[in-house]
Amino acid sequence: DIRSQIEAVFRGGIFQPELLSSYKEELLDQQQGDVKAGAMKNLLAPIDTVLTRLVSAGYCAASLHTSVVANSVALLYKLFLESYFKEGNQLLCFQVLPRLFGCLKISHLQEEQSKALSTSDWTTELLVVEQLLNSVANNNIYNIAADRIRHEEAQFRFYRHVAELLINHAQAPIPAWFRCLKTLISLNHLILEPDLDDLLASAWIDAEVTEFRTKKAQETLIHTVFQTYAKLRQVPRLFEEVLGVICRPAAETLRQPVLASGPSTVLSACLLELPPSQILDTWSLVLEKFQSLVLPYLQSDADMALKSLSLSSLLHCIMFNMRSLDSST
Q1: Is 76 helix (H, G, I), strand (E, B) or coil?
Q2: Which candidate, 86, 95, 87, places its Cα nearest to that of 23?
Q3: Superkingdom, according to UniProt (predicted)?
Q4: How far apart are CA 41 and CA 78, in angstroms?
Q5: How far apart are CA 44 and CA 30, in angstroms?
Q6: For residue 285, which phi and psi values (nearest 5 degrees)?
Q7: Long-range CB contact pairs, 142-149, < 8 A, 24+
Q8: Smallest Cα–Cα separation from 226: which of 268, 256, 184, 191?
Q9: Which residues, at least 6 apart from 108, have a Cβ–Cβ distance to it below 8 Å?
Q10: Alpha-carbon Rg for the chain in angstroms
Q11: Degrees (nearest 5) of the Cα angle 306, 312, 314?
Q12: Which of 17, 48, 186, 217 could form a disulfide with 178 if both were Cys (CB 3.0 to 4.6 A apart)?
């Protein structure tokens, strides 16, 4: 098996046990400014050496470079964790992550540059970002309290940066885009909280999703969002954002009704678990928005008619999927 042979070469070359101290010097001591000036010359810097070579041109065909770099990033992080991850090394295993992420093209995109990458490149790199984030989640590398108290929220700031990139360059046709967002909100809902309205717009309300696998990824994300805010007892706050997006002017084309069968099923399941007080608060919010922002302007306005249909379907979903006040039905 060629892959196994490649992994064995990497383990025996750049992930030897005796190189752990060099990785710590490069990724931890240097990061914290603990390396003395004289010692800098003798710093082995294995990560810098590997990544400099990885992003350089000329070792493969230009048409393959993006794919080679992206898949190498995923493999390098996998092998790094397999070689060095243990209790107490969480910060080390995080510090290598931004360095690897920086090799991907999407890490350098500015606003309005989404079209700088082809759909194929987006798919390749988002699949790698998904693998990186899943590795963080599966290995418990991100501890919210430890990151805030001991490390000045270094991890949180990085995940916020990734979230902003994903939201600013929405890729709704690609299932991995939804899965990356789902993992981020599972790590810490505050990572996506500042962009909650844009998340709801680009991943749900304004998203045009037709392909089956993409729909399933979208539904899983929506379910995670609703579950998260239900656990936080903040569903009315979430619905405030949902209603705000529905009621703002549509962008280039008229916004279609929001409750397709998939999202409707997800929302129904969530509503059944909520206490009546939150349901009533949400119900009141929908009615208030309808009466103040839609009803007065409904006549002869196609956009308002669609908004009315969305709000009506939401209200119907809430009313017919809430528990009665005695919780018996």
Answers
A1: helix
A2: 95
A3: Eukaryota
A4: 29
A5: 12
A6: -60, -45
A7: 142/90, 142/94, 142/187, 142/188, 143/90, 144/188, 146/90
A8: 268
A9: 102
A10: 23
A11: 105
A12: 217
Asked whether the CA dihedral 92, 93, 97, 99 is positive or negative, the reply is: positive
Buried b (16+ CB within 10 A) or exposed e, 68-84: ebbebbbbbbebbbebb
Integer Cα distance of 316 and 95 in angstroms: 48
Q: Give the pLDDT band of residue 327 (cuts 50, 70, 90).
A: low
Pairwise CA distance, residues 258 & 198, whole Å: 15
Tokens matching residue 56:
């350089």
Residue 225, token pair as written in the block: 């969002």
**Matching residue, tokens 């990824």:** 217
C-alpha to C-alpha distance for 297 and 11, rounded to whole angstroms: 66
Tokens of 214: 């993409």
Strand, coil or helix: what is 34? coil
Domains of the chain: which residue ranges?
A: 233-329
185-203 per-position pLDDT tens digit: 999 999 999 999 999 999 9
- Give the tokens for residue 78: 């996998």
Using one digit for the tens of pLDDT, what is the confidence trace for 257-268?
666 655 677 788
Report the C-alpha gap between 106 and 102 in whole angstroms: 8
What number of CA atoms fall less than 13 Å from residue 46's CA on the CB side?
18
